[in-house]
Task: structure prediction
Amino acid sequence: MRIAVAGSTGLVGSQVVAVAKAAGHSVVGLAREDGVDLTSPVGLDERLAGVEALVDVTQSPTIDIEAVKFFETVAANLGDAATSAGVSRTVLLSIIGVDRVPQYDYYVAKVAQERTHRVHSPGLHVLRAAQFLDFPGMAIRWGRDGDTTTVDDLLSQPVAVGEIARVLVELATGERDDDVIELAGPRQERIVDLARRLVAHSGEHLTVIARDVPEPMRNGALLPGSGAIIAGPTFDEWLSRQPA
Result:
């Protein structure tokens, strides 16, 4: 099967490419490193020629309200090109609870991305995943100021990127056929607590300060529903395999 991956060189996209290739599929990368500007429609339909499924794991360069324009533009370009090229299936990576937190700019942008794909893209399937197990480390870097860092006090059920990649490929190939499906890890955690455990594991002298977030994010809006896929490892199992 020929699968295109938009955002193919990122944290998730690179693992989607690896999982797809390991299963014997042909992969078309769609990223700047592949010579593709997804904010422009030029040449996208040629890139998608012969592609049967498109996976969108693109990441906005910002996390503020400007991300709305990016996601809407890219989703429309990808969807129109996929339709023109005869792609039969589109898979989008989104976030659990994305439609339950209208106070948070990035989630507003992800809802706009989902909505735009539904208008433009053929055969859409959406995977709403929990935060990555890597997310606390990313949050530490984003909030760092000298020997302190500020991390959002989210309640989540974080999941391994490898599990996300596996389910995305299953949706792309039709092994799973859900219109919208959730994926999370096995344990509820506060992201700020995970950041502190990660700092302790590293041995670095860094103080982690909790940042307040909208009440729904703090108290369960980002947790999976009863029909979600639950896949390991836990954060502690993942952390034990990380270098100090």
In short: Residues 2-239 form a domain with the Rossmann fold fold (CATH 3.40.50.720). The chain has a mean pLDDT of 96. The chain has one domain: 2-239. The radius of gyration is 18 Å.
